[in-house]
Amino acid sequence: xxxxxxxxxxxxxxxxxxxxxxxxxxxxxxxxxxxxxxxxxxxxxxxxxxxxxxxxxxxxxxxxxxxxxxxxxxxxxxxxxxxxxxxxxxxxxxxxxxxxxxxxxxxxxxxxxxxxxxxxxxxxxxxxxxxxxxxxxxxxxxxxxxxxxxxxxxxxxxxxxxxxxxxxxxxxxxxxxxxxxxxxxxxxxxxxxxxxxxxxxxxxxxxxxxxxxxxxxxxxxxxxxxxxxxxxxxxxxxxxxxxxxxxxxxxxxxxxxxxxxxxxxxxxxxxxxxxxxxxxxxxxxxxxxxxxxxxxxxxxxxxxxxxxxxxxxxxxxxxxxxxxxxxxxxxxxxxxxxxxxxxxxxxxxxxxxxxxxxxxxxxxxxxxxxxxxxxxxxxxxxxxxxxxxxxxxxxxxxxxxxxxxxxxxxxxxxxxxxxxxxxxxxxxxxxxxxxxxxxxxxxxxxxxxxxxxxxxxxxxxxxxxxxxxxxxxxxxxxxxxxxxxxxxxxxxxxxxxxxxxxxxxxxxxxxxxxxxxxxxxxxxxxxxxxxxxxxxxxxxxxxxxxxxxxxxxxxxxxxxxxxxxxxxxxxxxxxxxxxxxxxxxxxxxxxxxxxxxxxxxxxxxxxxxxxxxxxxxxxxxxxxxxxxxxxxxxxxxxxxxxxxxxxxxxxxxxxxxxxxxxxxxxxxxxxxxxxx
Length: 676
Description:
alpha+beta; about 675 residues; two-stranded antiparallel sheet; single chain; Collagenase (Catalytic Domain); about 5% strand; 5-stranded mixed beta sheet; about 55% helix
């Protein structure tokens, strides 16, 4: 088993967190008070690294409860404890005595060529982090930075918790939900007056925005969705932006994006700015064409309903997904209601497991009972190397929405894979990695008794499954020596690359056949429906890509502008400039843009940046050598996943590709012509 206790009480969380912080404090005091002349790798770097392994594991697990526990009190305690952890982390990260000893060790090791690679990288990283914490600055600047960092951590935790705890319910009549399939309506709770109760979770929000014929229904849904936590989170975001600006200024950076990109592949904000602007310009012709198609479909529908077509005809935010879905169904003849009949969750899971096991040379086995997890639907699996039968770690699957649960889809690393402190040599015993995939897939209900026994997934959900499980595999397959470089601890603008690359398997006939089968008899997806689905990948591709560029540009601008930032004004301007759609009056999606407080601040460009590399890897290796080729898959595991963050991303890419990375495959995928 994963050897994690999930039956903890609030008192247990407090007690364990206090014990872990006390142990860490003792260790930091010991290495911090050491004579500078006596510092060494063994008595300074190794103890600090060992502590990261134990401390990070404890903190990750305790703080995870706030995202998944069915117990509201336990979620609150976990959140409260994370605040304490955050304050403690700031205090420890700004220990002048430890930083001075690290610098002393660096000077002492005049020739570091013979240092073990990860230890050298760790030493260099600690010095850079120390300077990014202002430990080379005056005491008054350090004190101000400490206050700023603690406040920012507090605000980020509150921002995320507010979103998790949102339980907004909307009520609609059956007529107002015209266009939604019967199996969707059957699963909704009803009021005493017969109205249907709808949440703002994705299994409700996405189908309504795509299928509800009544524009007022879509409008009220869109307004509610993009007004979540408006009163609580907008002031938080405004304060966060101001604090981030001040932190960057103290540390000598022109803006927050410059600060965060120093440790990223992009290296500076100008590179990000130019990348986003260039891609928007390159996509503009295709976007304009697709946007006109949406308008044509809207005009056609209005005429069919006997309604006048306004001039000028506009596309509103509540129209975008609806008409994009119509384009997909009519121009590409994809009936998504039929498609999902072939994607029951149990079949998708079995196929996904099979694909990942073949490609990465792994074996998955279900283990444990419901009592050993935090909620009865959660499943636990062990992961072994298929060739050596060596146990690598464990992962959890928590796939359905519930009140108070993390509202999106994500992988949470719970235990890093690293050498355990007691055996710190190269041949030491390894801590097993543990990760959890959390999602909010449509559960289904089968009220009639003759429906599917397993929930049916939309193809979008299948793609999300592959993406997030890719992060799980990154956490499990990485075998770094130090916890600091474990799993997904790579540059933030590379971390999405491995998972985005694996989304391609959701669009190839060979792999789709392995993960699909009709829920009644297991019959394969008909060839014509399969080919239509594959071709539909290019449906609305410019619109969907431009939407990501809109979000990335908005994030970039609010984190590069000087002075007080008018969030709504910038959001509206960027939306009009890039999407040609104004922000809906009364809304401000920034208040529910979880990435802005979840580690992607100034870095949302990472999704588009990563797409360049994922398409390069897929097209140049897997498409040429076979998407189910175990040799190519093992190269991918060893060159990309295995190393974690122990090497620069660009070096890992060059090793796997056998050359410098190229944008050509990515631009070709988007339909953008290259010069060669």
